[in-house]
Amino acid sequence: MEELINTLKLQIIDALNLEGMTPDEIGNDDPLFGEGLGLDSIDALELIVILDKNYGIKLASPAEGKTVFKSVATIADYVSKHRTK
Amino acid sequence: MTGILSTNIISPVGLTTADNFAAVRRGEHAMKDLSGWKGIPVRFCAGCFSDEQREALRVPGFSWLESMVIRSVQEALGHCDVDPASPRTLFVLSSTLGNVDELSPAPETDGDFRNFGESARKVARYLGIVTEPVVVCNACVSGVTAQLLADRLISAGHYDHAIVCGADTVSPFIVAVFHSFQSMSPTVCRPFDIERLGLNLGEGASTIILGRAAEADGWLLVDGLLDNDAYHVSAPDPTGDGVRRVIEGILAGRDTSDLATVSAHGTGTMFNDEMESKALAAAGLSNLPVSSYKAFFGHTMGACGVLETALALHALERGVILPAGGFEEIGVSGRIDISAAERTTQKRTLLKIVSGFGSCNGAALYVPKGRDAGEKPLKEGPAPKVLRRIRISPEAVILDGGKVPVEGTGQAMLTALYKDRLGDNIRFFKMDPFSRLVYLACGLLLKDNGLAPESLGILLFSRSGSILADRKHLGTFTGGAAFYPSPAVSINTLPNVVVGEVATRFRVKGETTFLILSERDGTLMDRIITSTLAATGPVTMVTGWVDCGEPDAFEADLQLITTF
Q: What is the mean pLDDT of each run of 10 residues along chain B (564 residues)?
């Protein structure tokens, strides 16, 4: 799981261009939206692309992503259970 | 105030305004199921020309977009006595994406691609137009912006006539943009309906030729307003406040008893239609018939503000309010008067409203000559005062005449400048080089201004626009890459989106406009700036030149000016 969490952090940093940020700076349980990393609705769509592209997971809508995208830990948990690649 | 001398619409269902009107009344629409089109693994519908239609309309030596523009303008010119070759005839092209279907991820494989400015100039010269064209690139608000720009330049006495043409194409590029935002409907769109699933893209061109009011015997463009809701670059203010303000601004002090209908933007997305319904209700227009044409033509982007105006006026001339295509059961919370059936009316005044990415909104009012709703005088105030100025080149930043100490050159310098001077918006890092430049230059002028948001505006000119983001976006789904277009990249393929980002972050709620010229032309820019100031009344505005054709070849030269 730690490896998956680290990979996800790198994928998020890369896709969202979080220039100069390292995986260590994102806490596993830090909120990604609002307070915390401060992501917004466009980023939510970007996270959907990350899951689809890398793990074969198709989320129907940002609304469905709301619970999944709480933190990197919740994404990792969801990915480990639903990944198809 | 100007008069409408002629119109044209070129769409998959007709090649003149009259043809399109007749086709819509027969129940025809342009929409086709394009699932799997050109290998794109997405279910979607779009209002597309067939290959045979494209071939028949193609003008040798010109792109598909340019061909549509040429056909549309030529047809419109055939119905009026306007000399395109007069030095007092202006050409305004309204387009969100221009020739992107000819673009490639790298400059060396571009082939015949022409950027906006070159394209508009080539088309203008072919049509015999001798003046420098202006391209309006204000996302979905472009068509109304273009008409207002032309109206102001004529009213200010710089031109006698303006040929305003809106056009956009359906290409894998734009499909990828809207797919990344998950905003496309797999079926024909259903604006304002409870079961709406999103929008359909559409392609076409539409022309409105404007002249002095005295010349026209039909419709007058009597007023128009643009604003920014400063909410979010890809989502409208859910309260509809930005649209409400432009509607109320236009109708204030006018007799509205002749108001026949509002041609809504009505895209069929959850957010747009809900927001528009609230704006119309809040403006007291719950009993005004609403029409939406997106289910007939799709969302033709840069064309829609022109096309939908031309069609609505043609219908009203015949006492007809066209139905809201795709609509069956009300699915918005603002109370509006919408119908799936055609209606008749004795009234003739038209209100057109539009909203778009970059958080901008627009409205325009059209009245038949003789039912004059009263002209608002030009609000000519004192000459503008320059409050601040910034110049950014890859080597230096000059703010208010003083060199700003900053590390590095090029993009590294921009990042250092951002961290030193602004540094509180994580979205900066997600921007392409052009957007970073614009965000920084505008941000440094607007920071801590303490002015009322409604009194602030932005009017920018550029040559290269969003070309860097366009190429990057293409790279996310072409050249063997699987089809995973990135929303964070694709959002910046609309060059006015960064203007919306500035507006949101620095609270700018007045008019925001992005224009493209084939080259920096101080005289033309001055004409546009002064005619805008005359039309909008007291305003404090960021205006000037911004360009970034290569990541490390950029230029910003902006001023903060005021007429207060």
A: 97 98 96 93 95 97 97 98 98 96 88 91 98 97 98 97 98 95 95 97 98 94 96 92 97 94 97 97 98 97 98 98 96 97 97 96 95 63 90 98 96 95 86 96 96 97 96 88 88 96 96 97 97 92 97 97 94
Angle made by CA atoms B473, B118, B154, in degrees to the nearest 5? 115
Tally of domains within chain B: 2
B418 neighbourhood in chain A, CB within 8 Å: none
Residues of A in contact with B497 (CB under 8 A): none
Query: What ipTM describes this predicted complex?
Result: 0.80
Q: Which domain holds residue B293?
A: 2-368
B234 touches chain A (CB under 8 A): yes
3-state SS assignment for residue B227: strand
- Crossing angle of helices B467-475 and B433-446, rounded to 10°: 140
Using DSSP, state whether B139 is helix, strand or coil. Answer: helix
- Chain B residues whose beta carbon lies within 8 Å of the beta carbon of residue A49: 180, 484-487
**Domain residues for A60?**
2-82
CA distance B107 to B124: 25
Tokens standing for B207?
């022309």
Q: Which residues contact residue B338 at a Cβ distance below 8 angstroms, ignoring those fewer than 6 apart? A: B192, B289, B290, B291, B292, B324, B327, B330
> Which segments within B252-291 are labelled E, that is strand?
259-263, 289-291
Q: Looking at chain B, which residue has its C-alpha nearest residue A52? A: B484
Q: Verify that B420 and B502 share a domain, yes or no.
A: yes
Q: Do B487 and A49 touch (CB under 8 A)?
A: yes
Helix then strand count (H, E) for chain A reads 4, 0
* Residue B249 resides in a domain: yes
CATH number at residue B530: 3.40.47.10
Please classify residue B37 by burial: count the beta carbons closer than 10 Å to its beta carbon, then call 0-12 exposed, 13-18 middle and 19+ buried.
middle
3-class secondary structure, B90: strand
Task: Please name the amino acid found at residue B285.
Answer: L
